[in-house]
Write a structure and sequence with these properties.
Layout lengths: L7 H40 L24 H10 L3 E7 L2 E6 L2 H8 L7 H4 L3 H4 L8 H11 L5 H26 L4 E3 H18 L11 H19 L7 H6 L1 H28 L4 H6 L6 H7 L10 H14 L2 H16 L1 H15 L14 H13 L5 E5 L4 E2 L5 E2 L4 E5 H5 L40 H18 E5 L7 E3 L3 E3 L4 E6 L2
Parallel strand pairs: 2-7
Antiparallel strand pairs: 1-2, 3-11, 4-7, 5-6, 8-11, 9-10
Helix pairs in contact: 7-8, 7-19, 8-15, 9-11, 11-14, 15-17, 15-19
Length: about 500
């Protein structure tokens, strides 16, 4: 019997041949990818030729310009130089069109283009597919389901709950300013707005402002806002698998876990409360349900209840949006009033004549503070809580000036740019509440602190009410002044933040 043995030389030859084939295949794939990227870039160059922009690098586009912490400064230079709109290259094969003109905004927000996939998909690990991220029919069903939670009959009693949360914060401020009149307000306001949304939308009893454990949730939200924003701008962090291996990806995962622990606990607590004898019937008999109860009792069109995943996504979405955006708005409003004492005093006099010592503030009071409302809106113009949103064009679009774009181009709708556009708002950096005086004339899409169109903010009335309550009660208790040693530097994140916090000097009024 003979045994055939493969010689080492022939074996090595076979391996070498396989390596050559693999190398050739890899080279072919690389060339195909390079050709694909080249064609993509050529298509973008042609599509964007009507939209000028500063010179860009063929590989990293305008990224260097927007890596600065003060990236709002170059944005405003673009707004001044390129009327209405301009192109922005993120890197060699990724570009978008930056919009900051009211006529353009009206056209885009009047359509039903989906949210930009490349940007908004990065929020899914954090807030899931809730109302913010859903599209088409599913979004419509959820919007219709949740709209009753913001009916005015529901919002009316919330004013008292809002006032309770604000007073807890102001009591704490009295203690702190007795030691040092300088205070970073955004952290305190975030805790207060979270306390408010917990009471109003999630039926929480008591105040969470004295709960030290809640700080971990607030810090997780702050971290996720920063991490998500930096990931959008990093070409190497777009792939989910690669991102999870990076230190930032692991940090984001831990922050998501912390955020989800908080929302899971809120859902679990409410479910346990409804299991108590008589509670279920009591809640079912209410004419209007709170936000969380609507979700727990919801039945979709096919008759099924909301899945645990969908339920948690909506709670995560509203827990974040219901406190972080409002906290940003209130903090910047207080800073604007601190920086303009004559307007602050006029608001205070209006509120004193309406509320006296402020022991009671009700729904009916909120429409009787016109000058304070004007100042709030002017501060929201200067510091829009959500500085930008994005859309992917699902079909071609033609703008009022005749310029057009094909389907597939991402649009970045810059509310910050819109609100600082000198074509729209003369002397845009000047704080001038008279812009919002009753009867003043402005474009329907010149002022969009809560976005616009069918996908505008579902909680805008809730947010405006909370801002009015917070401003009114604060001005009755404190005189506000800016801290000249720590002037806030606005930076765009998911929500408009300050690079160095929002520091004020507070003096307690007698």
């Amino acid at each position: 019997m003979s045994i055939s043995v493969l010689s080492p030389t022939r074996a090595l030859g076979g391996v070498s041949g396989l390596l050559q084939v693999a190398s050739l295949l890899g080279l072919v794939l690389l060339l195909l990818k390079a050709a694909q990227l080249y064609l993509r870039r050529q298509w973008l160059l042609k599509a964007l030729q009507q939209f000028p922009s500063p010179p860009s690098h063929w590989l990293y586009g305008h990224m260097q310009e927007f890596q600065e912490e003060t990236e709002l400064r170059p944005l405003l230079k673009r707004v001044e130089k390129y009327p209405s709109v301009c192109a922005r290259w993120l890197w060699g094969t990724k570009a978008l069109v930056l919009v900051y003109d009211p006529d353009y905004m009206k056209v885009v927000l009047g359509r039903s283009d989906p949210k930009s996939h490349d940007s908004y998909r990065l929020l899914i690990p954090w807030i899931g597919n809730g109302l913010l991220l859903l599209e088409r029919q599913t979004w419509f069903q959820h919007r219709r389901m949740l709209t009753p939670a913001f009916h005015y009959d529901i919002l009316k009693p919330y004013v008292g709950l809002m006032a309770d949360s604000v007073r807890v914060m102001l009591d704490k401020w009295e203690e702190l300013v007795s030691l040092d009149s300088h205070l970073e307000v955004l952290g305190h306001v975030s805790l207060m707005t979270l306390d408010t949304i917990m009471k109003c939308a999630f039926s929480h009893q008591g105040s969470i402002q004295t709960d030290r454990n809640i700080q971990s949730y607030i810090q997780a939200i702050r971290d996720l806002g920063n991490l998500t924003f930096s990931r959008i701008r990093n070409a190497f962090h777009q792939n989910d698998f690669i991102y999870r291996l990076t230190p930032e990806g692991r940090w984001s995962h831990r922050a998501c876990q912390l955020a989800h622990q908080h929302t899971d606990a809120v859902i679990k607590l409410r479910k346990a409360h409804l299991q108590k004898e008589g509670e279920l019937e009591k809640v079912r008999s209410k004419r209007h349900l709170d936000f969380l109860d609507i979700l727990l009792f919801a039945r979709m069109e096919n008759g099924s209840s909301l899945s645990d995943v969908d339920l948690r996504a909506e709670v995560d979405t509203f827990m974040f949006e219901g406190h972080d955006t409002t906290a940003s708005g209130i903090s910047w409003i207080l800073y604007a009033l601190a920086s303009h004492p004559e307007h602050q005093q006029r608001c205070r006099e209006e509120i004193q004549s309406l509320l006296g010592d402020g022991t009671s503030i009700t729904w009916d009071h909120l429409d009787k503070m016109p000058y304070t409302t004007m100042c709030i809106k002017e501060a929201l113009r200067l510091y829009p809580p959500v500085p930008v949103i994005s859309r992917d064009l699902s079909k071609p679009i033609t703008f009022p000036d005749g310029r057009s774009l094909p389907a597939g181009i991402p649009l970045s709708l810059s509310f910050y740019g819109l609100h600082h556009n000198p074509k729209v708002w003369p002397n845009p950096e000047v704080f001038d509440p008279s812009r919002f005086a009753p009867g003043s004339d402005r474009h329907s899409h010149a002022f969009l602190p809560f976005s616009g169109g069918s996908r505008n903010c579902i909680g805008k009335q809730f947010a405006m009410n909370e801002m009015k309550v917070a401003v009114a009660l604060t001005l009755l208790r404190f005189e506000l002044a800016p801290d000249p040693s720590r002037v806030p530097v606005p930076i765009p994140r998911v929500v408009l933040k300050s690079k160095n916090g929002i520091h004020l000097q507070l003096r307690k009024l007698l």
